[in-house]
Hints:
Layout: E1 2-7, H1 16-28, E2 31-37, H2 41-53, E3 57-61, H3 73-82, E4 88-97, H4 105-122, E5 126-131, H5 134-143, H6 149-153, E6 158-159, E7 186-187, E8 192-194, H7 201-210, E9 212-216, H8 226-234, E10 240-242, H9 264-275, H10 279-293
Parallel strand pairs: 1-2, 2-3, 3-4, 4-5, 5-8, 8-9, 9-10
Antiparallel strand pairs: 6-7
The structure holds zinc ion.
Amino acid sequence: MLFDAHTHLNFEKYTDEERRTLAEEIEASQLGYIIDVADCAASARLALQDSEDYAWCRAAVGIHPDHASVYTDADIDEIRRLAAHPRAVAIGEIGLDYYYGTDDREQQQELFRKQIRLANELRMPIMIHSRDAHQLTMDILKEEGAFSEERKSWFPGRPAPGTMSAGGSGHDLRIPGEYTAGADRLVPDARVQMHCYSGSPEQAEEYVRLGATISLGGPVTFKNGKKAAEVARRIPIEMLLSETDAPYMAPEPLRGRPNKPQYVEYVVRRMAMIKGISYEETARILTENGRRFFSITD
Ligand SMILES: [Zn+2]
């Protein structure tokens, strides 16, 4: 079973027909779950509709930094209201995008802070989009209490590094002797997903120490994706999620085409190869990680 921890089934350019066809393909694939991610209040409503229509679908509701210059506080209130839906499992995607956004940087930061506060108010997982603003993203998350002890106390812990798999976990974070510890050994989890993580391996390790989870997609499969591959190698599998960001970021060998959630298989195969663990075991662990992260019990 596979888990796509960040995808856009509610993508605005899909026709109803295309969305239905895609849902049928997902249904027939190895996917067990997808998180359908919103980028504004209107897309959050669509994502929640998908989550009601499909048993394998949950929704993340939030406002993407691209909307920083057009959102209103009424949109934030609507996100708060939609987040109460039982199929809404995270606030996202939220964060900073300094690749496209140049004039609205102050507004992006303000929107980001408001939504971290909302996630804290609602005690929900946070899904982060961060592009060309790596240090500022981390600073704001810290300042707004995304890694506070209080926040970590709201969520059950996650298995310690090296406890979910016999092979291939990262080395740098492992405490000596921890490797053979039982799978019941838990460490704090702040439930912060670094979606399509594109920062340095060192910063990924810092995030994991803070209680965040690193989510990897298509770039880990790219021939020029050495940095993402190094992140996959160094970060313990217990702290990783698999995703597509479909319809963007298609993995090799489909790069350049429209991406689909079921192509998460290529991401998981690549992660398995990097970790030196079988594809089946990698898929099982990443699915378990996703279910735990988003508190999916059925
Ligand atoms: Zn996305």
